[in-house]
Amino acid sequence: GCETNLNTSAASCGACGNACSFANATPACTGGRCTIGACNAGFADCDMNLSNGCETNTGSNVAHCGGCGMVCAAINGTPSCGGGACSIVCGAGFGDCDGNPRNGCETNLGASAAHCGACGRACSFANGMPGCRAGTCARSHRLPAAQANVSSGAP
């Protein structure tokens, strides 16, 4: 005979000898139906499809890096996922200057006066507005809006 609770035994779930098994998961039996008890470390059931278990490796999948739906940004670069953490290799002329790979390579190094040619390389001039042209600091001939209004006599 089968001396086990068919409603809770993962080895005999719903019927004697009906063992529950899922990829990358610890099986469970609830109410006589096989379920996923827990995903193995580094895996998740992102598609919510019981038949393929915990199908997603959250340690290396750029669409589910560190957890389901946690996408590594590809803005101006090539993303990767390692150990559940996003990283990015920026395309030419762009930088990840805020250090947050989740928003990609957000800075145009050819036009940002705060990050001109490289992250953290700020442009400044004693007598003029700093600017950045093609990754090189340059003095801007534009006046700030407040000065332009005073110079033109506008209120």
Describe the fold and architecture.
- The protein is mainly beta and 155 residues long.
- Helix content is 5%, strand content 28%.
- The chain has one helix and ten strands.
- The chain has one helix at 145-152, and strands at residues 25-30, 33-39, 43-44, 56-57, 77-82, 85-90, 94-95, 107-108, 129-133, 136-140.
- It is rod-shaped.
- The termini are far apart.
How would you summarize this macromolecular structure in one to three sentences?
Helices cover 5% and strands 28% of the residues. With 155 residues, it is mostly beta strands.
Biggest sheet architecture: 2 strands, antiparallel
Strand order of the largest sheet: 1-2
- How many beta-strand runs? 10
Number of helices: 1
Strand-residue fraction?
Answer: 25-35%
Structural class of the secondary elements?
Answer: mainly beta
Low-confidence stretches: 146-155
Indicate the overall shape. Answer: rod-shaped
Radius of gyration: 28 Å
Helical residues, percent? under 10%
Mean pLDDT: 89
The succession of helices and strands, N to C, reads EEEEEEEEEEH
User: How many angstroms does the end-to-end distance come to?
Assistant: 95 Å
